[in-house]
Design goal:
Distance between the termini: 31 Å
Number of domains: 1
Radius of gyration: 13 Å
Number of helices: 2
Number of strands: 4
Strand content: 25-35%
């Protein structure tokens, strides 16, 4: 990721999730980059329910099932 190299800091990309079929289905989501488990027990900044350190991705539980 180019920003990581330019800033010499870890950066993350946010993936907006606006709708889903159910809350339980959301909890089972895997990282779209690597397929790993990325659900956080405690949301980062009370916003980001998902974070993958490996891929640098952040996301949230869909707003319609929160």
């Amino acid at each position: 990721m180019r920003f990581n190299r330019l800033l010499n800091k870890k950066t993350y990309y946010y993936i907006l999730k606006s709708s889903a079929k159910s809350y339980d289905a959301e909890l089972l989501r895997n990282c779209p980059g690597c397929g790993g488990d990325w659900h956080q027990e405690q949301p980062l900044h009370d916003i980001f329910d998902f974070m993958c350190e490996r891929c640098g991705l952040l996301s949230n539980i869909a707003f319609n099932v929160r």
